[in-house]
């Protein structure tokens, strides 16, 4: 090998070890970066001429890759919108809110939090994509075309009118015929307003009572808000105090509201025949008969504003409202690739698909080859600092040895030039 070939080989060694040291430096710097995948340096022999020639210049070249299939340690997080993936796959994100197919990228960095506009954004500024759901929490659509940029702004829980009032109470068996007792129930109309209705219980015969319902009035102002149908519900009890008959069945009362709300037919659920779950009759055990109300509830829901958002295991985005209702509003999917090593890096922990990686296969959490989404958790960096320090020592020694070769070749060139002179 000639002196120039020796110099070329040594320089390639310096270049290769510089690249290795750069990768080591990046890995160590990102040892605490969420979802970071370690950068790996591979060395390959480089030949610039036929090895049959004694003057052939050997050398080394490098190529870079990332440990995409290696999973970092998953640790819990206090933020309910932080996510990790246990197993294969990536979160689907976009660098803008349009979520166009061409803008989609993939990351393991699940440090998502809500920004001022209501979007879920990770620490690198990428917007989380998900599938919207229907009223029952079922996913709408699928594939890439079904994805939306998750936005949590302006979410409200619409009012739901009352359809059933459930009563659990004990009527006094010792009451005289003609005695009356009063309880109150609430009814939510279609506009979300809460109306109070008085319930009058009248003993009409031995083991026989009637229930009539008064006109509704506002829970806030006390003003009458409509009328109730003149429906009389008759309940008879057996000798053990359990309901024997309830008439009419169903025991419906119709309310006509004057505030613009729709008329509502509400069932007064007084319990099952022969059951103690609803209205029963029993001696109240005192000189003054009294009605004991265990509970009176209705299935109506007043309108609610958003109070909190959380993502559960499996990737369901749940919104909780001031009316106590919790709804699933999005489902976070997981993207997998035939060759994840073929992804190309667009930022620290974010990648895009290429011809080498193949197109993304999108599934829900835990379906097919997709890993499972872990809620309130983050995946740590795959950097092992001890391993990186060992690599750094080797790179330093190799770089130093190559520089010695450069120095020796220089001395030999100097000697050759001095002989010529």
Automatic annotation (TrEMBL):
Keywords: Bacterial flagellum, Cell projection, Cilium, Flagellum. Residues 273-292 are annotated as: Disordered. Residues 8-37 form the Flagellar basal body rod protein N-terminal domain. It is found in: Bacterial flagellum basal body. A flexible structure which links the flagellar filament to the drive apparatus in the basal body. Belongs to the flagella basal body rod proteins family. This is Flagellar hook protein FlgE. It comes from Brevundimonas intermedia. The gene is flgE_1.
């Amino acid at each position: 090998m000639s002196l120039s070939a020796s110099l070329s080989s040594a320089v390639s060694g310096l270049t290769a070890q510089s690249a290795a040291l750069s990768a080591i430096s990046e890995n160590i710097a990102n040892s605490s970066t969420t979802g970071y995948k370690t950068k790996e340096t591979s060395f390959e022999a480089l030949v610039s001429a036929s090895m049959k020639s004694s003057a052939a210049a050997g050398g080394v070249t490098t190529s870079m890759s990332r440990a995409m299939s290696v999973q970092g340690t998953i640790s819990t997080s206090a933020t309910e919108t932080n996510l990790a993936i246990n197993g294969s796959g990536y979160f689907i994100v976009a660098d803008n809110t349009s979520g166009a197919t061409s803008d989609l990228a993939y990351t393991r960095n699940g440090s998502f939090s809500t920004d001022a506009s209501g979007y879920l954004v990770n620490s690198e500024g990428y917007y989380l994509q998900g599938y919207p759901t229907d009223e029952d929490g079922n996913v709408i659509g699928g594939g890439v075309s079904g994805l939306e940029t998750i936005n949590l702004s302006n979410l409200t829980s619409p009012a739901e009118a009352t359809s059933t009032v459930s009563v659990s109470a004990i009527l006094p068996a010792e009451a005289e015929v003609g005695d009356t007792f009063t309880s109150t129930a609430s009814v939510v109309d279609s506009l979300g307003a809460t109306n109070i209705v008085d319930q009058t219980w009248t003993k009409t015969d031995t083991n026989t009572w009637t229930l009539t319902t008064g006109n509704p009035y506002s829970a806030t102002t006390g003003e009458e808000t409509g009328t109730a149908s003149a429906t009389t519900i008759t309940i008879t009890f057996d000798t053990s105090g359990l309901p024997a008959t309830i008439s009419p069945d169903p025991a419906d009362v119709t309310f006509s509201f004057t505030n613009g709300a729709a008329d509502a037919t509400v069932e007064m659920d007084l319990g099952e025949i022969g059951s103690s779950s609803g209205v029963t009759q029993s001696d109240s055990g005192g000189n003054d008969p009294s009605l004991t109300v265990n509970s009176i509830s209705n299935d109506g829901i007043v309108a609610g504003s958003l109070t909190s958002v959380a993502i559960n295991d499996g990737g369901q985005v749940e919104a909780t409202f001031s009316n106590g209702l919790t709804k699933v509003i999005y489902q976070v999917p997981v993207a997998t690739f035939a060759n994840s090593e073929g992804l190309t890096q667009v930022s620290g922990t974010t990648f895009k698909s290429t011809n080498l990686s193949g197109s993304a296969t999108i599934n829900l959490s835990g379906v097919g080859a997709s890993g499972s989404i872990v809620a309130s958790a983050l995946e740590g960096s795959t950097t092992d600092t001890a391993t990186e320090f060992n690599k750094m020592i080797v790179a330093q020694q190799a770089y130093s040895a190559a520089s010695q070769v450069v120095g020796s070749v220089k001395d030999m060139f100097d000697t050759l030039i001095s002989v010529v002179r």
